[in-house]
Amino acid sequence: xxxxxxxxxxxxxxxxxxxxxxxxxxxxxxxxxxxxxxxxxxxxxxxxxxxxxxxxxxxxxxxxxxxxxxxxxxx
Length: 75
Known about the structure:
Shape: elongated
Order of helices and strands: HEEH
Structural class: alpha+beta
Distance between the termini: 27 Å
Number of strands: 2
Largest sheet: 2 strands, antiparallel
Helix content: 40-55%
Number of domains: 1
């Protein structure tokens, strides 16, 4: 049985994945691999903050940083 805090974290992760793929498609952000897996994100569980990781290769990192503020993290 999964406790409610863990269930909430799993749901946040699932919602983020759906939103980020939609965001990529709507903003014509190209795949950097064959499936967007080169885009890396840092998820801070306690604050529920998500940031673009510097592990994302250039030039994809810089391009995404420029439009990141447009990404609807919550809601």
